[in-house]
Design a protein that fits this description.
The complex is a heterodimer of chains A (116) and B (227). With 116 residues, chain A is mainly alpha-helical. Chain A is built from four helices and no strands. Chain A is globular. Chain A starts with a helix and ends with a helix. With 227 residues, chain B is an alpha+beta fold. In chain B, helix 2 crosses helix 4. Chain B is elongated. Classes of the chains: A mainly alpha (116), B alpha+beta (227).
């Protein structure tokens, strides 16, 4: 079964240690914005992954998070890294800048290099 | 509309190509594989003219233009008209406007490559009066190359696809040294195949020879100098 936007959101929350659904630190909309931004970044770096979708990337709304992702599953893992990285870049008491930068670099290098 | 080429037939040889490439090239997506494999197949077929078909066309009295439709037209398109024969005699190709000549025996290829125009319309209708040998290539959105051609030129197609993938910048599989090696291997295979095809696929046959019917050659031996 293809991975969905919702899967990325839950993986990103695991990295962010924000899995208590009764008391999320980051609202769903913020995390979903991160997924939408991450897909734009993947589209910029690896246009070939969007060939079947005719190179189109459309932002998803909260009601559509069970839709399948437009990229092959083997590149799924870069998306939670991007989303967690973007979220950690926010200036709040839970964030750690160096960790955010590490996550973003890891995601980028997974897209561009064989060993990352 | 996506233009990622697809395969419409159940072709084990294609699956062998796909499996080999996915296992050799790390981080390769199915779309990138289909796009570059399609490009390599097109390139190989256009350079070698190895995929040929003889199309028989009905001659119709008074008609000069004929559409050449190969049997594989669902997934193949005409790349070249290699030879045209009528009543067991080869017709000669001509460029430009020859209509004013009004003599039987010449043809020209239309811009669409799958239509020919005869210099003179036949006077009688004949079933299968025209034999047209065409060189085929893939349609841009298809990967349905005949199985026997894939099997015979398997390594060339793999090398051509790998070269294209390895030379793409900023990918996990980018590798310029390997790209050069694969490109050399592909071009050598193209050259070898083209030579073999030009020689009629007969081992040891010369790839090209003077036409024995050429006027300059046939007269030279029997020329009289008035002695």
């Amino acid at each position: 079964m293809p991975r969905t936007y919702s899967d990325v959101m839950s993986r990103a929350r695991a990295i962010l240690q924000d899995e208590d659904s009764s008391n999320y630190r980051y609202p769903d909309q913020d995390i979903l914005d991160g997924v939408n931004d991450a897909l734009l970044e993947v589209r910029r770096l690896r246009a070939d992954l969007f060939a079947s979708a005719d190179f189109a990337v459309a932002d998803k709304a909260i009601g559509d998070i069970t839709d399948p992702l437009p990229i092959p599953d083997m590149y799924f893992s870069v998306l939670p890294y991007f989303v967690a990285g973007y979220t950690m870049l926010r200036d709040d008491e839970f964030s750690l800048d160096s960790r955010a930068v590490n996550l973003l670099n890891k995601a980028t290098s997974q897209l561009l290099r064989a060993a990352a | 509309m996506s233009l990622v080429p697809t395969i419409t037939s159940d072709n084990n040889s294609y699956q062998r190509l796909r499996t080999t490439l996915l296992s050799r090239v790390s981080g390769l997506s199915d779309d990138a594989l289909a796009i570059e494999l399609g490009n390599a197949m097109q390139h190989f077929l256009q350079m070698t003219h190895v995929w040929r078909e003889t199309v028989e066309v009905n001659l119709i009295a008074g008609q000069t233009r004929y559409k050449v439709s190969p049997r594989a037209s669902q997934y193949a398109q005409v790349n070249y008209i290699i030879n045209v024969e009528a009543d067991e005699r080869p017709l000669r190709p001509l460029g430009g406007d020859f209509i004013s000549r009004g003599t039987w025996g010449h043809y020209k290829v239309e811009d669409s490559f799958d239509e020919i125009e005869l210099s003179t319309a036949p006077t009688t209708t004949k079933a299968q009066g025209l034999k047209v040998v065409v060189g085929l290539t893939l349609k841009p959105d298809k990967l349905d190359m005949p199985r026997e051609l894939i099997d015979r030129y398997f390594e060339a197609l793999i090398a051509g696809t790998q070269a294209r993938l390895y030379e793409t910048p900023n990918k996990p599989y980018t590798n310029l040294d390997e790209a050069k090696r694969c490109r050399r291997e592909f071009l050598a295979d193209v050259s070898r195949t083209r030579r073999a095809v030009n020689a009629g696929n007969v081992k040891g046959s010369p790839p090209w020879a003077f036409n024995r019917q050429a006027p300059g050659r046939s007269r030279r031996g029997s020329r009289s100098y008035g002695f």
